[in-house]
Amino acid sequence: MKRQTTACSILLATALLGACSTGTDDQATSSPATSASASAVAGSESVSHNDADIAFNQMMIPHHRQALAMAELVDERTTTQAIRALAERIENAQQPEIDQMTTRLADWGVPAEPAESNEHAGHGGDGGHSMSGMMADDEMAALTDARATEFDRLWLDGMIRHHQGAVAMADDELARGIDGPSRALAQQIKASQQAEIGEMKQMLGQ
């Protein structure tokens, strides 16, 4: 009986040691995979925007500012109600968008405009990074001096090109950007300004 009891004790101890060893091995095997998975998730969450997102927001701010400057000229230079109404819509839409983009860039820790920003850099540049459609200084001067029918024609022609430039910039962001809010803004700009281009072409009889 004593020998049987001793044998049973040995078997029980061996079984317990085996179970503990298996649990430790399983834990050691699963830990690296779990850690790698967690690291991958953390890494993907840390990349919220890229250079295209930064360029889109930085370039669109001065682009919008020029549209606001053009809209501000309307009241004293035309009696055409449709143009007055459109200018007011542009002001109401684009100033909040400027505020949104300025805040976003500040959150990213980058300046609101590129280091070598040029508000009239729309005549060239590297694809989507250029501010296409911008009015040149002499064009803005001519618009400022114009009145009545001549003002209407210059304003509509200039704003159509300006909007077309904004749509091109929005398309570039949608093609290359990864930041959700920036892409949503690009889609909003594209939709609203394409509709306004249609309105302005009708006003010009195109």
Automatic annotation (TrEMBL):
Composition skew (Low complexity), residue ranges: 28-44
Signal peptide (from-to): 1-24
Domain DUF305: 53-204
Keyword Ribonucleoprotein set for record: no
Protein keywords: Signal
Source taxon at top rank: Bacteria
Listed name of the protein: DUF305 domain-containing protein
Species: Gordonia hankookensis
